[in-house]
Amino acid sequence: MTSEQVGGVWPLIAADNLEPTGALMGIDWLSGGAFYADPIGWTLSGVPGVTNPNVMIFGAPGQGKSGTVKLFCLRMMAFGYRTLILGDVKDEYEPLCRLLGLEPFAIGHGLPARINPLDFGPLGEGWRWLPARQAKHRAAIVFGRWLLLIRGLVGSQHVPFSPSDETVIATVLRELTGYGSGASELREVTVPQVWGALDEPAEALVRECRYQNRRHFLDATRAVRDALGALVKGHLAGLFDERTTVDIDWKAPIQSLSLSRLEALGDEAVGVALTCLNSWGRGMTQVAEPGDLRIVVRDEAWKQMRLGVDAVKSLDADLRLSRRDGCVQIVAAHKPSDMLTVGDDGSQAVAIAKDLLHLCATKVLLGQDEKVGAELSAMLGLQPMTGHVVTGWATAAKGRALWLVGNRAFKVQTICLPGFDDAVLDTNSALVAS
Ligand SMILES: Nc1ncnc2c1ncn2[C@@H]1O[C@H](COP(=O)(O)OP(=O)(O)O)[C@@H](O)[C@H]1O
Ligand SMILES: [Mg+2]
Fold first, then answer.
1. Looking at ligand 1, which atom is closest to the CA of residue 399?
2. What's residue 282's pLDDT?
3. 398 CB under 6 A from ligand 1?
4. Which of 64, 68, 131, 368 lies at a CB distance of 3.0 to 4.6 Å from 372, suitable for a disulfide?
């Protein structure tokens, strides 16, 4: 062979390291040097194969996925990156938030925090002082986001959302906010108000949406109305049906919403909460100014993806936009097949979920057993030698991973600094104490 082919045959030969920019993660095991992670830097400086700043992390439970993410976020803060934890389903980001002086918000029955999915979110900030044109622009973004959200919420109850339903919901939202009647300042709406407008439709609404009469309207919108009703009267009542009571500082170094209290209500409740938060997260990146760098973390991403095709599409859209928004999207999951449970084999949802993998130029593969290792190797086209790193070397210690950065592979041990980082990382303390 020629020297050009050597790298293909022996993929794990120590070569020139990546530039020492970004978060110092730990040791590059092949060269013995330091390993720095800088997804946006890699994208901008044209590291071969790094076409976007997204990161996908796979690893067996307990191998250190969340730990790696936390250390990365913490160390990127020194460079001005802000972190948004889009739903902390195990409350494991709470110590990190507290370390940074922020109290995370917890959502659950009996807790005071309420999230209004139809909140203006960060886009509502300073609305009153916006010039008319900019307010109009923001309104268009907000309405688009709300529609997408309601589509997702309705879809999560396994109810299809037709173009006629969309017309109805858009009309209702315009009326309720006052946008339809040209109000300069919009009113905040809640899901019960939308549901109420569908349940007791005004004559004007029936006419505007071209239904023959009230009866026709009620029959045609029944499925959507009942799906939204689950948020108003069903087991999710009291969580997402009032105005937002928490005051989120969108400019803080980290923001996180703890969702572990929802666990008892089932995956659907967690999924709905994640859908609402996702919508907020999107709003947040939309107001980001140039140079405003963000890390958006979706730990246990499959919980949201399982809600159905709309949830998968929404994640897909976020990953595609990250390059433009200056945002590092991190998705963590146990194994690729978790992502594929979104639908039947060959369905649209599965096809999109498979593509998600390719929308993340950087993959971090922590230790896995042989079966999942084989699955990963097949999906990512790993050579046997590289695959063995995942099923062998990486399983021997927490935080060890094969980092696939574009076309290159690195064996990296993420280092946790004793006395400082371990307080942030310790998710095992609950087990040890009991
Ligand atoms: N780089 C690391 N070095 C040492 N210990 C780590 C490291 N990363 C994680 N851990 C420890 O491993 C345990 C499990 O890690 P965690 O990140 O919660 O795993 P996962 O998210 O993959 O389930 C935690 O108690 C954490 O303290
Ligand atoms: Mg975890």
1. 1
2. 74
3. yes
4. 368
Put residue 232 in one of left, alpha, beta given phi > 0 → left and psi -120 to 50 → alpha. alpha
Residue 108 Cα distances to 172, 262, 275, 428, angstroms: 28, 6, 15, 23
Cβ pair 69, 364 in contact under 8 A: no
User: pLDDT per residue over 111-128, tens digit each?
Assistant: 888 888 888 877 777 777
| Closest protein CA for atom 2 of ligand 1 | 399
- Predicted model pTM: 0.87
CA-derived radius of gyration, the chain? 23
- Give me the phi and psi of 260, to 5 degrees please: -60, -25
Which positions ≥6 away from 384 have C-beta within 8 Å? 377
Whether the CB of 416 sits within 6 Å of ligand 1: yes
Rounded to whole angstroms, the Cα distance separating 214 from 367 reads 59
208 CA to middle of ligand 2, Å? 49
Cβ(59) – ligand 1 distance below 6 Å = yes
Does 427 contact ligand 1 (Cβ within 6 A)? yes
- What atom of ligand 1 comes closest to residue 26's alpha carbon? 1
Of the CATH numbers 3.40.50.300, 3.20.20.100, 3.10.310.10, 3.40.50.720, which one belongs to the domain with range 3-95+293-433?
A: 3.40.50.300
Nearest-angstrom CA–CA distance, 220 and 164: 9
Q: Tell me: the pLDDT tens digits for 245-283? A: 877 777 889 988 888 888 888 877 788 888 877 777 776
- Cα 377 to Cα 373: distance, rounded to the nearest angstrom: 6
Length of the chain: 434
Residue 55 DSSP symbol: E
Count of beta carbons in the 10 Å neighbourhood of residue 130 = 16
CA distances from 174 to 127, 193, 230, 415 (A): 17, 12, 23, 52
Tell me, using a 6 A CB cutoff, whether residue 425 lines ligand 1.
Answer: yes
HSE at residue 176, side-chain half, CA atoms within 13 A, is 22
Both structure tokens of 284:
């947040």
Determine contact, residues 191/240, Cβ cutoff 8 Å.
yes
Q: How far is the CA of 114 from the centre of ligand 1 (A)?
A: 31
Element holding 375 (H helix, E strand): helix 370-380
Rounded to whole angstroms, how far apart are CA atoms 294 and 288?
A: 9
Q: Write down the pLDDT at residue 433.
A: 46
**Which of 122, 115, 121, 78 minimizes the C-alpha distance to 100?**
78
Ligand nearest to the CA of 422: 1
For the chain, the structural domain boundaries read 3-95+293-433, 121-232
Q: How far apart are CA 111 and CA 9, in angstroms?
A: 57
